[in-house]
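User: I'm new to structure prediction. If I give you an amino acid sequence, what do you actually give back? Let's try with this one:
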Amino acid sequence: MKFMLFLAIAMLAVWLFRSGRRESMKQDRPEPPTTPPGPQEMVRCARCGVHLPRNEAVVGRLDLYCSAGHRDAAEA
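Assistant: Good question. You get back a string of structure tokens that encode the predicted 3D arrangement of the chain. For your 76 residues, that looks like this:
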């Protein structure tokens, strides 16, 4: 009888230990990595010829440029 009581207490202790570890593991789990952005359209600077993504290009009256300085120099 004492053996069964000891076994029940041991099983309860193991169950509590494991359930506590599962909860802490759920909280410590890192976020899944984000997917990198897809390919972007590349454009050429009208002044120096360097290629850069369209979203980083400076728009001028005549064309696209890599910087405001190149835009100002070309359109002055």
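You can read the tokens as a compact description of the fold. Here is one thing that stands out. The chain has a mean pLDDT of 87.
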